């Protein structure tokens, strides 16, 4: 084949695939509907010609198109384009774990202390299973509908403009508020390390200033090295505390004189509000799910997403159980929140120092994803989305800056770590980690379920299972939000907390 013929064929493929992606996305934006044929369209599988049932393109042509044009970012791999799809499944597994192992793990031990060991572990494992399933649903939905980038796109596809607005607002709020929660965690770390050397509000500002340039890197792939460091740092810091508490005499918050025996209770006796706040905090350990779809969109092979989910979910669940059980067994009822303060002052300073990269990465990655959510919506379909033009950088840096400012205000306005992370998890985590994915499964299954002859027992099970997820998520959302609000109110009343407070939040002074 001549060079001119090759170029012509490539241009034809690009034109066809771009048109298909654009048509699918515009149609989904217009009426929120997506036919079965579109779910197996040019970019998600080999499409079928409606007249004769033959493929629109061959499998070989499809592979070439997928390498050149993406359903979200457009042309990829060109000399002057930003190639967003550059992440392999191993790095995806690491970033999925870091999206989860961070703020959530720091509240697991205290949640077990509130609920008791038996119900606490049951609920932890239940959430691991439910979110593991919903994570897989995200990967499947992306393969069926290549034009979706965020859960907002999924909401628009299923329920039209209103669905897009509701899902979009909840997704962005979740990511922005997790960033704010990370700022509080970072300020706690600096207070612990420096023995509260300056006003806590100053440390929150430092967290925001350091986060901005790193969150403004254009691609998730650019954060690869920092992601590895962050995962190792947070895991190492938590394990230092676990080992120190297990081999030490008593936790730091326990009376330092007289005998000490940990209280191990199979079942706790919390109030309804306390129990639901603890449940919401356990969900947060797995509630990074809303950020999973943008990560899947930047994978070289989105079909490998399920592999990354299974690996990361298995490792995370085992880690959470070990941390929760050991700290509960040796430190209850004197478990700190965040958990890194459970051991003595020296260990606390060491563990927080080691955990700092992990805490910063949580703020960086969630600020990056919150900003990219807006960035893609603003420039989607434009030449500026995947080309480093002046407008590209102006919009991108404005997005990261605006999202950062909002998260900073949240952190300063609600400086109560346990209450804020519980509120984030209950109010937005349940909607985006459980509700949305159950609805996505039901949406993709409905086209087949309508055909009576194709209703298998497994399909019936899937329908009822996902309906049960919707019920569980609704209960946790309502009760968890109520409990978290009361927790914040009680903390303000007891400790005299106030916005833009200088008070030490690490217990160091």
Automatic annotation (TrEMBL):
Output this protein's name.
Answer: Amino acid transporter transmembrane domain-containing protein
What are the boundaries of the region Disordered? 1-58
- The record lists the membrane-crossing segments as 89-108, 120-141, 162-186, 192-214, 226-247, 278-296, 308-330, 350-369, 390-410, 416-436, 457-477
Q: Where is the composition biased (Low complexity)?
A: 16-29
Question: What family, per the record?
Answer: Belongs to the amino acid/polyamine transporter 2 family.
Judging by the UniProt lineage, the source's domain of life is Eukaryota
Sorted keywords for this record are: Membrane, Transmembrane, Transmembrane helix
Query: What single Pfam family name could you report for this chain, choosing any that match?
Result: Aa_trans
First-listed, main subcellular location of the protein, grouped into a coarse class: membrane
Domain Amino acid transporter transmembrane, residue spans: 88-477
User: Where is this gene product found?
Assistant: Membrane
- Output a single Gene Ontology CC term carried by this record: membrane
The answer to whether keyword Transcription regulation applies is no
State one molecular function term (GO). L-amino acid transmembrane transporter activity
List the membrane topology term(s).
Multi-pass membrane protein
Q: Which InterPro entries match?
A: AA_transpt_TM
Species the sequence originates in? Rhodotorula graminis (strain WP1)
